């Protein structure tokens, strides 16, 4: 049986403590980031008076999913939904990388790709407003407001409010480090 020297035991304990501290630090940062996203989406949904505000997070190049949502009713939940791969391509990504804000008052009247219209219809979307969340290394995600029950005409102040929300998220250190 090998007996650890006092020095080796302390080194091992210190590494374990450092590992636990690193894990705790990451957990705290994740909780702070999640709370900021939750507060931002809730505030936007209430201010815009819409059915749903979501964060669509890109986990790899143009592949993502809805990771947060604020809902007026549970029936509008789309948490975990992914976008249609064939619709969101480099062309659309480039537009959002350039800061594009897209407001659609009524998907039934808007000139959009059929796959996009079908995708939105399947999510019960009647109107949507999309703003990019841009961080120094690129497009981190999309902040999206959906109105499901009827058309919704987006005012310049609605668009500005969403852009402010996206900017709040884009400049948070916990998001910049994620």
Brief summary of the model shown:
44% of the residues lie in helices and 22% in strands.
Folded structure, characterized:
By secondary structure, the protein is of the alpha+beta class. 44% of the residues lie in helices and 22% in strands. It has a five-stranded antiparallel β-sheet with strand order 2-1-5-4-3. A hairpin with a 2-residue loop joins strand 4 (127-135) and strand 5 (138-147). Helix 1 (6-48) runs antiparallel to helix 4 (156-170). The protein is elongated and about 75 Å long. It starts with 5 loop residues before the first helix and ends with a helix. The relative contact order is 0.15.
Beta-strand share of residues: 15-25%
Net shape: elongated
Tally of strands: 5
Flag low-confidence runs: none
Span from first to last CA? 44 Å
Question: Biggest β-sheet: count, sense, barrel?
Answer: 5 strands, antiparallel
| Strand order, largest beta sheet | 2-1-5-4-3
| Cα gyration radius (Å) | 21 Å
What share of the residues lie within helices?
40-55%
- Number of contiguous helices: 5
- Structural class category: alpha+beta
Mean pLDDT: 88
List the helices and strands in order. Answer: HEEHEHEEHH
């Amino acid at each position: 049986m090998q007996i650890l020297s006092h020095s080796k035991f302390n080194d091992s304990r210190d590494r374990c403590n450092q590992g636990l501290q690193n894990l705790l630090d990451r957990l705290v940062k994740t909780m702070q980031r999640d709370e900021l996203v939750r507060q931002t989406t809730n505030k936007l949904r209430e201010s815009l008076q819409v059915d749903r505000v979501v964060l669509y997070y890109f986990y790899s190049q143009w592949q993502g999913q809805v990771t947060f949502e604020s809902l007026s009713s549970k029936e509008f939940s789309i948490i975990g939904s992914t976008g249609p791969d064939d619709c969101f391509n480099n062309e659309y990504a480039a537009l959002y990388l350039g800061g594009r804000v897209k407001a659609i008052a009524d998907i039934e009247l808007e000139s959009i790709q059929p796959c996009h219209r079908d995708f939105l219809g399947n999510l019960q979307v009647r109107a949507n407003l999309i703003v990019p969340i841009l961080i120094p290394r690129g497009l981190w995600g999309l902040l999206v407001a959906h109105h499901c029950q009827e058309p919704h005409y987006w005012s310049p102040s609605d668009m500005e409010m969403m852009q402010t929300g996206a900017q709040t998220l884009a400049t948070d250190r916990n998001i910049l480090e994620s």
